[in-house]
Design the sequence.
């Protein structure tokens, strides 16, 4: 039941420029959010989505500096208003030089600053912002998950009994009660994402802002998070804004619920391109808009299906493979919020064939893969434990073959990353045997295996340290003793594969988070190992980035590499994987062809997963019954077109 | 509100002491280490201080598994360099010393010098042992909760909170960076030279990561309401009792009085 509240957020002519930047990251935009009109912010990587959410939370420019124009006004249910609206902007230290705050009464000097700080603090108190990096969101200030979740309540003086009740309820509802006593620093990225979500929502904010809320989540976590977001605005009257690339999630939370056909229910969406609103309207219309793809946003599965039913071509809708791909590499150093404080160039939509940054367009033909000796991997009864003694792998039997893509899927915390770490030798085996190309590598440590197997980590920031992209990519091969022309060739190839050739002399931290992910991947590819493991390669990538990643992984398969992909993106898995292994509690509970695993609801359910949206939609349309079994959006589109023709 | 035992988080204070009680015990022992030599002993550490320091060590070892090992390592790392330098300085350069224990060229190691060195080193051992007890039994968040309850301004607490959490965060990040670089073929475990050579690949992302972490943690804390003024209630109460409250006021006061009285009498 919807709670009628008078909360309202109005944004008028708001613009923002990062400290030291020549161009604006957000350019004079206007919109409103009301409890019955949540906002969906779409756009390619680097379009300004995270910056906009940070501005709505009152973080930029108030906490992080930069220059702002226009107004943000938060009207509260009790009739009071908070207004942040500099006329002259802030200096680089975040101090307001001159401006109007609250009530519109002009103030001077220290009085202005004090008043403005008070308004900004009050604004911040009423906001919840979920950052797109869950590990960064955890404060590190508490030793247990339940205490971490309770921080917002503690700061508001809620009684202990009430807190315990709310935290208990939150942990149970989120299905993370088993994490209660864990130290937040020991959580996997997916587990941290679920804890972070509960932690930011628990204080019942007036304005809840979510940056890629489902990017790291398994099916169970995704379902809970989407349900909770729905509750926030339908039952608690919270103002909600979501920035996301996951349009299937948007479809599920905003457009497929019971309110879908209600006249009161009117979520709206805007598509940002280089900080400007390129497209806006009701969410249903925007998600169905044909020009969405031109703005770097892929269609949701349901929108795709509807378009094909109307006579559209799936390839034309999904086909970004032959368009220029910007990779969303923003040319500026990001802060940890994913904001770009030194925006000198404008990221966003590039003219056809050339990216805004001069990045290499997605090559018509991918670079030639180096010749490597194919190698298989055989894990027999492999067990392993973390350094603290926690058993993470139990009797794993797994075979990875050259020229095959094996996907490892499982719920958050199931042991996917641990298995990848065991593959590269970062987790010593406590039992069983691992062989690569027939040689026993069970006792080899990671550096000794680096000539055979490489891993693209989930958080590339943990490896980046060189001052240029090129040097970063060259580091691994250099450690292996490569030099001269061979080193240069390996680096050039990896940079080209990842579309980084034209930013080879930039500092890795001048790129967006997605850009850094590509640098991490290029560093892995430059090792030119016969076995390649990719840990959540699509997280944080926009539609074009995902399509490029698919091409790249396909290229590895064609070059007879042995590929292990860890992903909870079942659409990506369904389109690419030859073999799928399901891991749960550190054990492989099933493995087989994609078709046998990805449509087995019972098996997926046991592992805390649910079928990909394409599989669900195909079932709704009766395609599976006809023997089609499309496992991905692309396969679904092809099946629909075939039926239509 | 009454506090039941279930309100207490067993992880944060397994010895059942309030952080201020632990601090009070550490201060008491440190003060007693300053008792003059007139108090029934001739050489080295006041027996009462040594005995209490040993008692604290036993208590610390009960706080969690491996706690005694961690406590001993902390004490050794802090005390040994200090003790060695004291023995060198006083052992070799106490020119009043007449009882020569050993000599090499112009250097004479005298018994009087060694006794003076032990006098200082032993007292420092007690002080360091008490400080290590405090560190091993009071977690960072319990310390922060205590500061909040003492009404230290929220801004100062926020800064301390970020600073105190930097070390555990750095340890976790360092492990992740080491893994990432080793997977790329970087040797970190093959001797001192390999470690030295790998330092930039290790320290650079660590430093950058910690800076960014500190910024984000500050924002994350602010977003949760860390700057909100007014009373705070912790999810789990810090363990406390009337007896602890009395003892933590009484013990340091008595110890201070004893030390002052002993010094006055010693004149």
Sequence:
């Amino acid at each position: 039941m919807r709670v009628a509240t008078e909360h309202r957020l109005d944004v008028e002519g708001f613009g923002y420029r990062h400290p030291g930047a020549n161009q604006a990251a957000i350019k004079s935009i206007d919109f409103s959010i009301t409890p019955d009109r949540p906002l969906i912010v779409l756009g390619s990587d680097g379009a300004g989505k995270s910056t906009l959410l940070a501005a709505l939370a009152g973080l930029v420019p108030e906490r992080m500096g930069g220059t702002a124009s226009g107004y943000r006004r938060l009207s509260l249910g009790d009739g009071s208003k908070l207004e942040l609206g500099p006329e002259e902007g802030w200096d680089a230290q975040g101090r307001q030089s001159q401006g109007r705050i609250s009530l519109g009464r002009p103030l001077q000097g220290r009085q202005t600053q004090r008043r403005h700080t008070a308004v900004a603090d009050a604004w911040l108190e009423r906001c919840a912002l979920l950052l797109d990096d869950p590990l960064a969101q955890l404060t590190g200030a508490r030793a247990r998950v339940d205490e971490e979740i309770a921080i917002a309540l503690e700061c508001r003086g809620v009684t202990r009994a009430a807190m315990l009740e709310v935290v208990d309820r939150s942990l149970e509802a989120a299905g993370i009660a088993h994490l209660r006593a864990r130290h937040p620093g020991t959580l996997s990225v997916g587990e941290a994402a679920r804890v972070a979500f509960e932690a930011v929502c628990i204080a019942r904010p007036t304005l809840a802002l979510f940056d890629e809320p489902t990017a790291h989540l398994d099916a169970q976590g995704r379902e809970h998070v989407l349900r909770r977001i729905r509750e926030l605005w339908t039952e608690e009257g919270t103002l909600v804004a979501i920035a996301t690339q996951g349009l299937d999630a948007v479809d599920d939370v905003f457009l497929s619920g019971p309110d879908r056909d209600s006249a009161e229910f009117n979520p709206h969406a805007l598509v940002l391109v280089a900080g400007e609103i390129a497209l806006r309207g009701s969410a249903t219309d925007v998600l169905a808009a044909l020009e969405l793809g031109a703005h770097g946003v892929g269609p949701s599965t349901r929108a795709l299906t509807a378009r094909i039913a109307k006579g559209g071509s799936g390839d034309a809708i999904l086909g970004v493979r032959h368009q220029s791909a910007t990779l969303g590499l923003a040319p500026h150093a990001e802060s940890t919020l994913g904001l770009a404080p030194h925006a000198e160039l404008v990221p966003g939509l590039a003219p056809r064939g050339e990216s805004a940054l001069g990045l290499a367009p997605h090559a018509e033909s991918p670079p030639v893969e180096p010749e490597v000796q194919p190698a298989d991997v055989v894990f027999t009864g492999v067990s392993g434990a973390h350094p603290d003694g926690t058993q993470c792998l139990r009797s794993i039997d797994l075979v990875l073959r050259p020229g095959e893509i094996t996907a490892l899927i499982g719920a958050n915390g199931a042991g996917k990353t641990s298995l990848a770490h065991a593959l590269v030798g970062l987790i010593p085996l406590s039992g069983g045997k691992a062989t690569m190309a027939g040689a026993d590598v069970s006792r080899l440590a990671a550096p000794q295996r680096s000539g055979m197997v490489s891993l693209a980590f989930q958080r590339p920031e943990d490896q980046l340290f060189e001052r240029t992209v090129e040097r970063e990519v060259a580091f691994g091969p250099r450690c292996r003793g490569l030099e001269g022309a061979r080193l240069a060739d390996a680096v050039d190839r990896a940079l080209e594969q990842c579309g980084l050739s034209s930013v080879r002399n930039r500092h890795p931290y001048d790129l967006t988070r997605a850009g850094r992910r590509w640098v991490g991947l290029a560093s892995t590819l430059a090792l030119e190992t016969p076995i390649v493991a990719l840990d959540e390669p699509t997280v944080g990538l926009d539609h074009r980035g995902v399509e490029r990643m698919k091409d790249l992984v396909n290229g590895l398969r064609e070059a007879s590499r042995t590929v292990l992909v860890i992903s909870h993106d079942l659409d990506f898995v369904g389109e690419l994987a030859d073999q799928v292994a399901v891991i749960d509690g550190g054990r492989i509970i099933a493995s087989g062809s994609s078709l046998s695993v990805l449509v087995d609801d019972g098996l997926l359910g046991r592992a805390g997963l649910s079928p990909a949206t394409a599989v669900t939609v195909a079932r709704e349309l009766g395609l599976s019954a006809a023997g089609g079994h499309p496992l991905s959006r692309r396969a679904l589109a092809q099946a629909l077109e075939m039926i239509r023709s | 509100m009454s506090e039941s035992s279930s309100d207490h988080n067993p992880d944060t204070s397994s010895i059942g002491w309030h952080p201020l009680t632990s601090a009070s015990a550490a201060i008491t022992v440190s003060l007693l280490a300053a008792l003059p030599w007139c108090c029934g002993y001739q050489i080295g550490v006041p027996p009462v201080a040594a005995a209490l320091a040993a008692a604290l060590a036993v208590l610390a070892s009960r706080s969690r598994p491996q706690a005694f090992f961690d406590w001993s390592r902390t004490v050794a790392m802090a005390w040994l360099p200090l003790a060695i330098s004291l023995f060198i300085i006083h052992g070799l350069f106490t020119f009043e010393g007449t009882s020569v224990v050993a000599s090499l060229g112009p250097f004479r190691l005298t018994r009087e010098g060694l006794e003076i060195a032990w006098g200082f080193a032993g007292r420092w051992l007690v002080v360091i042992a008490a400080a290590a007890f405090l560190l091993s039994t009071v977690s960072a968040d319990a310390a922060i909760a205590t500061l909040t309850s003492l009404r230290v301004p929220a801004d100062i607490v926020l800064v301390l909170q970020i600073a105190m959490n930097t070390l555990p965060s750095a340890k976790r990040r360092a492990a992740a960076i080491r893994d990432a670089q080793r997977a790329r073929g970087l040797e970190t475990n093959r001797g001192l030279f390999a470690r030295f050579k790998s330092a930039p690949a290790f320290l650079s992302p660590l430093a950058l990561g910690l800076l960014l972490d500190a910024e984000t943690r500050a924002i994350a804390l602010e977003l949760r309401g860390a700057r909100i003024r007014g009373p705070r209630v912790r999810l789990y109460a810090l363990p406390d009792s009337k007896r602890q409250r009395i003892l933590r006021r009484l013990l340091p006061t008595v110890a201070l009085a004893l030390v002052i009285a002993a010094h006055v009498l010693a004149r």
Notes: The first helix of chain A runs from residue 49 to 56. Chain A touches chain B through 72 residues (CB under 8 Å).
